[in-house]
Amino acid sequence: MTVGKYDLIVVGLGAMGAAALYQASKRGASVLGIDRYAPPHTLGSSHGDTRITRNAIGEGEIYMPFIRRSNEIWRELEAKTGRRLFHKSGGLIIAPATGGAGFHVRGDFVELSASLAEKYGIAYEILDADEIKRRSPLLQPRATDRAYHEPGAGVLRPERCIEAQLELAREAGAAIHTNERVTGYEAGADGVTVSTAGESYRAEKVILAAGAWIGDLLPAAYRGGIRVCRQLIHWFEAEDRSAFDPAVFPFVIWIGDCLDEFWSVFPAPRDGMAGVKLVTEQYHSSSHPDAVSRVVTAEEAADMYHRLTRPRLAGLRDNQVQAEVCLYTLTADEHFLIDYHPASERVIVTSPCSGHGFKHSAAVGETLAQMALDGGAEFDISAFNLARLIDAQA
Ligand SMILES: Cc1cc2nc3c(=O)[nH]c(=O)nc-3n(C[C@H](O)[C@H](O)[C@H](O)COP(=O)(O)OP(=O)(O)OC[C@H]3O[C@@H](n4cnc5c(N)ncnc54)[C@H](O)[C@@H]3O)c2cc1C
After folding, report:
1. Of all atoms in ligand 1, which is nearest to the CA of residue 355?
2. 222-271 pLDDT tens trace
3. How far is C-alpha 391 from the chain's CA centre?
4. Which residue in 89, 123, 127, 132 has its CB near the most CB atoms, within 10 A?
């Protein structure tokens, strides 16, 4: 049975889809959002209590309009919902003076961040190892480490951001279907049909924001250009949790000499999860998201604590209190995907992840709504084109 005709259907209501649904409904469009689970949930890429956000985006200048606009939208959402979505903690990006293994993009991430901060008038400092230790006594950098310090950076609360946008979208009239998986879509001259197990829905446009599952909804030729990598989030018991409060402890992105030495530690908001959050990154193995093991093993917890954390951070006990698996959806150049479908401009495809998408998601949602409702984006999205997925396989 075919149901209704909407201006827009949004498939996937995680970070990007919830933001797109909110933005389109705010503009008065009739919208339907569909998710295979019930967001915010722990099976995609947007869970785990906190996400780092910075103002100088070392991943590239192309992201600067997105972060600036996202920051405005987070503030707007806080005012509208009364929910706290952002904690200003400051942030440190620590790397060897050589630049180390890089982070998300090639090059010295400390330098890349500093040069954008300089250009955009963002307050920052470069600290040597002694100064890092003096300001954050729990940290034990090597003598050759130095840090980019951005006092205005902090952490977002991803589940709350998603909830807030879905709630406001619903209030503005959006229909939201959860626990309903989209199985296909067909675009024609007079609209798009989106199919789920029991229903099909009609709309003028569709946004595919399926995160790690985006490959399932793309033509086969594009799928090989995307890798889904299992990532781990650990929470370890603190000797004194107040020492990790955002008011006194910054997030730390710690870049090593090789990719396997990368890790980060997050400030722990008082009303957040128990323990202190630590994450690593791995790019060695990838799989379909439905095949990812969701269990964090004792060996993985020991590696996080003994190899990565203990030599460089004091104040945590060898007691993992919680762990979660999260998914990176990676392109070869680690930049985003935001484009029209090659077969029809009625279909917009997005998966802005590669491990750094959340901070930009509010503005990405606005961009997706513009693409659907206005026929184009205000910000430059040319670097996020789909054709790269084919080039990367050549
Ligand atoms: C461990 C980890 C740490 C990270 N840290 C940071 C950070 O500090 N800062 C930062 O900016 N970014 C960070 N990121 C990246 C950021 O979280 C992601 O870029 C972002 O959350 C991706 O959002 P998304 O909407 O693309 O995916 P998701 O939020 O996963 O949403 C996709 C949605 O699509 C739904 N879906 C899939 N298939 C279908 C279907 N067929 N039908 C219906 N629904 C479907 C899913 O159920 C899901 O809800 C991190 C990611 C991870 C994994």
Report:
1. 15
2. 999 999 999 999 999 999 999 999 999 999 999 988 888 899 999 999 99
3. 24
4. 89
Amino acid at 10: V
**72-156+226-330: CATH architecture:** 2-Layer Sandwich (3.30)
Give the Å distances, CA to CA, from 260 to 71, 102, 283, 299, 307. 31, 11, 9, 15, 10
17 lines ligand 1 (CB under 6 A): yes
Whether ligand 1 lies within 6 angstroms of the CB of 364 is answered as no
Q: What is the dihedral of CA 213, 215, 216, 220, to 10 degrees?
A: -170
Copy the structure tokens of residue 385.
Answer: 């084109």
Q: Which portions of the chain are predicted below pLDDT 70?
A: 102, 104
Amino acid code (one letter) for 85: L
C-alpha angle with apex 135: 133 to 138, nearest 5 degrees?
55
Cβ atoms of 305 and 317 closer than 8 Å: no
Residue in 192, 221, 225 with CA at minimum distance from that of residue 11: 192
Tokens of 71: 């920051």
Enumerate long-range contacts of 306-312, CB under 8 Å, 24 or more apart.
308/261, 308/263, 308/278, 308/280, 309/236, 309/263, 309/265, 309/278, 311/140, 312/139, 312/140, 312/141, 312/254
Task: Supply 61's token pair.
Answer: 């200048």
The CATH-assigned architecture of domain 2-47+158-221+334-391 is 3-Layer(bba) Sandwich (3.50)
Vertex 240 angle, CA 239 and 243, to 5°: 130
Q: Are strands 191-196 and 182-188 parallel, antiparallel or unpaired?
A: antiparallel
Peptide bond into 40 cis (omega under 30): yes
Distance (Å) from CA 223 to ligand 1 centroid: 17
> Could you give the residue range(s) of every CATH 3.30.9.10 domain in the chain?
72-156+226-330
Q: pLDDT tens across 100-141, in order?
A: 776 767 778 999 999 999 999 999 999 999 999 999 999 999
The answer, yes or no, to whether any atom of ligand 1 lies below 6 A from the CB of 327, is yes
Three-state SS across 182-248?
Answer: EEEEEEECCEEEEEECCCEEEEEEEEECCHHHHHHHCCHHHHCCCEEEEEEEEEEEECCHHHHCCCC
Distance 163 CA to ligand 1 centre (A): 14
